[in-house]
Structure formats: structure tokens, C-alpha cells
Amino acid sequence: MKIGIVGLPNVGKSTIFNALTRSKKAATAAYAFCTIDPNVGVVTVPDKRLKTLTDIVHPEKVVPAVVEFVDIAGIVKGASEGEGLGNQFLSHIRECDAIAEVIRFFEDENVSHVGDGVNPMKDLETIQTELILADLQTIQKRLLKAKSDAKSGDKTKVAYAEILEKVFQTLDSGKLAHGSSLEEEEFEELHDLHLLTMKPFLYIANVGETQLSNFNEKTLHEKTGISENYDIIPICAKLEEETAGLSEEDATELLKEYGLAETGLNHLIRTAYATLGLETYFTAGPQEVRAWTIPKGTKAAQAAGKIHTDFEKGFIKTEVTGFDEYVQCGGEQTAKEKGLVRQEGRDYLVKDGDVMYFRYNV
Ligand SMILES: Nc1nc2c(ncn2[C@@H]2O[C@H](COP(=O)(O)OP(=O)(O)OP(=O)(O)O)[C@@H](O)[C@H]2O)c(=O)[nH]1
Ligand SMILES: [Mg+2]
Asked: Residue 345: which domain range?
């Protein structure tokens, strides 16, 4: 899973990136356009169940699931016409699975704002407009060609041009491409265009240290005008940056002082999983306990393919234990004795938390 971070300059994108990746990889500064080249970092997905499994299995190695984050330059009004750094750098996030848009709420006179001051609703509109304009540029070229191809009368080509036309109209009316009224298969036809506004969105509200208690999901939706269909995650980038340098216990302690139960970053990753409809299955053996990320509704054979394509091709069956049963039994052996290890075929729908073992032919 790969997530692209976008927003105006100086909203704290790189600060959040550093906190997420527990690094100082990205330069941050109080002036706009500090970031020019993209920063790419890998973040492990926090999952308490891994620790539980480790305590049972005592493996040599534990491998958590990972999410990749890409931090890019700030976008400004007119970027599609070359303002600021233009919008060429958006190509760095075309391959991402989702977009995380950072909105500035924190006030700090030492950190300039590219507009006339902190204004979440207006800032949001600026960014959405630029992303829509970037997608319009992408689709216009393709639409021209598709229309000319459709003149042949070929049914598939006519249908394709119609799909593009619909998306063009959506974008042209100022809406995100994923709001187009298309069938599931039609959306798939557009995949290779890598439209930015076709991707799932989640929003990060970068709130100041002193504002943390002022915001909840409801007020954030009100202040941004973002529909309830999207998640907005409040994060205090400054605070997260501090916790990144601390041990797990000290970080939790510090967060408690601010009335927070978990880091905004954990909240962010959890939300990203939900937004993207992802879940986790585990493999657990003496060599390795490992978390694997799959989309909801994945079948056993495809899940096996995550580990190795041979596992999918030569799939025979899988031995599955539900997470709770696995833990209650204290491991596979007792689960087997109690008949809780199920034999399932290639079409078995994997459930979140399943502990799986695959049998396959080479
Ligand atoms: N007070 C306060 N300052 C913050 C917070 N988050 C970020 N900053 C500061 O804001 C400035 C800009 O942060 P960056 O992370 O560089 O912002 P950016 O969005 O990556 O900016 P560009 O790369 O220029 O697009 C830095 O000086 C940060 O220390 C916050 O929550 N509170
Ligand atoms: Mg930056």
C-alpha cells in the first residue's frame, strides 16, 4: 500500500512524513517549497496481534505489514499553469493507492501561510481544484484520441470514449473523478490513466498543540466542509515529531498528557486500512510470524499468491485458524486437537486475523 501526501506549502507535510517514518529524512522549514524532490519512506503497520502471536510462537523473526508514504512538494493555486513549482511533481504520486491531504489548522506566526492566513475551507478548495485541473490535463489528451478512434464505429471504442466523456464532465464541473456515476467495470477501464482524484482520499487536519482538545470528527467536518463520507484525522505534527524520538512507553505517557489514547499516526494508518478496504492475515511458524495485507474479499488462493506466485499456481488447500481460536488454544497444536483448524479450498474468503498455512504443489 502506498499513500501520497499532498497539501499547500508549509502545512506540515514533511513534518508528518518524518514522524510517520520516525526519521529526519525530509527537510522541514518555515518557508514555502522546502520540499522539492519527493521523500519516500516505509512505515510498519502497528498491529497488537503480532505481539500476541509472537508470545505464543516465539519465532526467529517478526515481519509486520508496511505502508509506503510519499511526501511531495507543496501545491499552490495556479500550479496547473506553472505557479510555484508547477504540477509536474504530481507524477510522483500517480502510482499511489490513496491520497492523504494535509490541511493546516495550526496557527504560528513564524510559519508563513501562502494564502491570507489559515483558512481550512479555502485551502482545501485550492488543492482540490489543482488536483482536478491536473486530472483534466491527463484526460483531455486521452479523450481526443478516444473520440477519433470511436469514429470507426467499433462498439468497444465508442463505449470507452463515453466513459472518458463522463469523467471529463465530472471533473469539468469541479468534482473529484471518483464521484463520476460509472459502473465498477467502467472504473476499471480508467485504471491506467492513474487519475489523482479517482483515488480514495483521507484528510489530515494538522492542529496546533493547544488546539488538540478543541477538535473532534464533527467540528473538523464543519470547519472544512468535507462530507461525512470521508475521514478526517486530527494530528498535531509537532507533537508527533516529538513522540517519534521516544520509546513506546514514553510516547504513550506524553500523549496521555494531551488527552490522547494513541498517536495520530496509528489512527492515520488504521483509517487508511479502512478507507482502502484492507485487512490482514497472518502466517505463524518457528521461523517467522508475519502480517500480510490483502483487500477485503480476497480468496485463499490469491492470498497465497501474496507470499509467492507458486503458492497461488500450485494451491492445494489451506489450513486456517481464526485469530481468537488460535490465541485461546495457545497455538496451532491445541487448535488442531480441538478440531479448530479448518481445511479450506482456493475459493475460501479470507477473514481479518486468520492464521493460515498453505499447501501447494511445485
Ligand atoms: N507550531 C507548529 N508548527 C508546525 C506544525 N507542523 C509543522 N510545523 C512547522 O511548519 C513548518 C513547515 O513544515 P513542513 O513540514 O516543512 O511543511 P511542508 O508542508 O512539508 O512544506 P513544503 O515542503 O514547503 O510544501 C516547519 O517549520 C514546521 O516545524 C505544528 O503542528 N505546529
Ligand atoms: Mg515538505
From this structure: 297-360
CATH number assigned to the domain comprising residue 80: 3.40.50.300
Surface-to-core class of residue 14, CB atoms within 10 Å of its CB (0-12 exposed, 13-18 middle, 19+ buried): buried
Q: What is the CATH number of the domain that holds 334?
A: 3.10.20.30
How many Cβ atoms sit within 10 Å of the Cβ of residue 275? Answer: 17
Phi/psi region, residue 330 (left: phi>0; alpha: psi -120 to 50; beta: rest), is: left
Helix axes 237-244, 13-21, angle to 10 degrees: 30
Q: What global pTM score does this model have?
A: 0.88
Strand, coil or helix: 71:
strand
CA dihedral 300, 302, 305, 307 (to 10 degrees): -60
Judgement on whether residues 218 and 354 belong to the same structural domain of the protein = no
- Residue 147 has a pLDDT of 95
* Total number of domains in the chain: 2
Ligand 1, residue 206: give the atom nearest the CA: 31
Same domain, 262 and 334: no
SS3 readout for 284-298: ECCCEEEEEEEECCC
Do residues 56 and 96 share a domain?
yes
The rounded Å distance from CA 23 to ligand 1 centre is 15
| Stretch among 25-29, 138-142, 149-153 having the lowest mean pLDDT | 25-29
CA of 277 to the centre of ligand 2 (A): 28
Q: Whose CA is nearest to atom 16 of ligand 1?
A: 28
**323 and 262 in one domain?**
no
Last residue of a domain, one of 274, 289, 319: 274
- Cβ atoms within 10 Å of 134's Cβ, excluding its own: 22
Residue 221 CA to residue 229 CA, distance in Å, equals 10
